[in-house]
Amino acid sequence: MTQKDITFVADFLTEHFNEAPELYNRKGKYFNVERVGQYLKDEDDDLVSPPNTEGNQWFNFLKDSTHLKENPLLFPYYPEKSLHFVKRQMEGVIDQCLQKPADVIGKSVHQAVCLSLYKISQSEDSTPQLFKLPFLWNDKTSNLHYVLFTMLENSISKIHILRRHTDTSRSVSNGILAVEFGNFLNNSINEISDSRCYSCLDAHFYDDETVTVVLKESVQQEGKERVLAQLPLS
């Protein structure tokens, strides 16, 4: 250790661990705790060594401002409390602010339509996952909601598109349809239909008029082909 290091440690001990008679009536040891650690204690007790805010530009600005001094939008400052205490206070305020919107939004949500996608046997112990890749898209120009998804099991080569109007009182034609990829990439009609069958790995809307899909060759062999295709929604 250098002499500078020893001096630094000595100064630290002198400043923070000297006897403090004004703390004798408190529980515990009779010397100042390290000033950073006191802010991290999860306690409601006042800080042993509160910070000195004298000369702080922000506090002076608030003190001299008639309009901001009692402004309810400014979070109150607790110079005698730890960060845990302030955190709990702030969480309480945030929860209170979010409660009203949550109640209003919750009461405004209702079921617009119910579509039966598949049925399963009631005797099965565990329900199989048949619904995959749900992706949502909102076409603000036409006021339409879209949901892209695939169904597993016997329809892995299909992608389903559900379309609803944002106005629940209105309906749109072809509310739900399926696009089957199958062997559409074959070079000719003479190719064996099962030789190059494709299933959908993923699908997203690229924009309001285009759907991007990632296809996988379904043949059980090494080096399965992957295809990135962009399909016009029309």
TrEMBL record:
Source taxon at top rank: Eukaryota
InterPro entries: APC4, APC4_C
Keywords: Cell cycle, Cell division, Mitosis, Ubl conjugation pathway
Gene Ontology BP term (one): protein K11-linked ubiquitination
GO cellular component terms given for this protein: anaphase-promoting complex; nuclear periphery
Keyword DNA-binding belongs to the record: no
Domain annotation Anaphase-promoting complex subunit 4 C-terminal half WD40: ranges: 136-234
Protein name: APC4 protein
Organism annotation: Drymodes brunneopygia
Gene that this sequence comes from: Anapc4
